[in-house]
From TrEMBL:
Name of the molecule in the record: Beta-lactamase class A
InterPro entries: Beta-lactam/transpept-like, Beta-lactam_cat, Beta-lactam_class-A
Beta-lactamase class A catalytic domain residues: 16-257
Keywords noted in UniProt: Hydrolase
EC number from the UniProt entry: 3.5.2.6
Pfam families: Beta-lactamase2 (PF13354)
């Protein structure tokens, strides 16, 4: 199918896949191409965390103290001014609902980085590689740029001293050197979530349904569709994975990753939503 018609005029490239959650049928465009996850990785963190809670390995009420050393900047505890104490469960909620990077780091610390890295193999996702939480990825960027630490990196980024080209040459923009997957693997993972243990799946779906940022794929969707999503972005990448539940009982997993060359993000986001609609129509026609 031709999704490029929506993206070529915008100077963007799309990789996308849709999967029917009932029977596993799917189709896509460049669905096996590697793509960077950015904040979409938080969906994997949430799943592993919730599984460990269910297994009794993590106490969801365990208090975690958040200090300046933990804060990366951004939303949630990542942008707090003062020290705070919060349960690990609420950190997971902030990670998913407002894309809190520091919360993601602290949740991974509680569940173990090794558990995150081994998750794709345990799920049979052969084209997915998870290296670590947001802090790990930013530390690699600092090393790429020969910057001493994350505090210094934050100052450099805020100053605007780095060009877009310099940033895009770092590991965070390279699917071979960062958290990465493919659209087809992502829809397979979404199907795993929807078919997973009921208490675990219900909580992860609830978090996806409460995401306050993103919603790119559902912008042009019918109002009768119930969307669940997780988005991610960097300069040059706009990503979102989602499940759409239709009133007639259909459930579609969608993964759309767009590489952007201009500052036309709003137009590209609308193209992503158009692509999502086109994928659902194409899948229906193939029935």
């Amino acid at each position: 199918m031709d999704l490029d018609q929506y993206f070529d005029p915008l100077g963007a490239k799309v990789s996308a896949h849709i999967r029917d959650l009932s029977d596993g049928r799917g189709l896509g465009v460049r669905e096996s191409d590697p793509v960077i996850l950015v904040s979409v990785v938080k969906l994997f963190i949430a799943w592993e965390f919730r599984c460990q809670v269910e297994a009794g390995l993590i106490d969801p009420a365990a208090p975690v103290r958040v200090t300046p050393a933990d804060r990366l900047g951004g939303t949630g505890v990542a942008g707090f001014r003062y020290d705070s104490q919060i349960s690990v469960w609420d950190l997971a909620s902030l990670m998913m609902e407002v894309s809190d990077n520091s919360a993601a780091d602290l949740v991974v610390k509680q569940m173990g980085a090794g558990a995150l890295r081994s998750l794709p193999a345990r799920l049979g996702l052969k084209d997915t590689r998870l290296l670590g939480s947001p802090r790990v990825i930013l530390e690699e960027v600092a090393r790429d740029l020969d910057i001493a630490d994350l505090e210094a990196l934050a100052h450099v980024l805020e100053s605007g001293a780095l060009t877009t080209e310099e940033l895009r040459a770092t590991s965070a923009w390279d699917p071979m050197r960062t958290n990465a997957s493919t659209p087809a693997d992502m829809t397979a993972f979404l199907r795993h979530i929807w078919d997973g243990p009921a208490p675990v799946a219900a909580d992860v779906r609830r978090w996806m349904g409460r995401q306050l940022t993103g919603g790119r794929l559902s912008r042009l969707a019918p109002s009768t569709v119930k969307p669940f999503g997780r988005s991610g972005s960097l300069p040059g990448w706009l990503n979102e994975v989602a499940v759409w539940e239709w009133p007639d009982g259909r459930r579609h997993a969608l993964a759309i990753f767009a590489q952007v060359t201009r500052r036309n993000f709003r137009e590209v986001e609308l193209a992503m939503s158009r692509a999502a609609l086109a994928l659902t129509e194409a899948l229906a026609e193939g029935q």
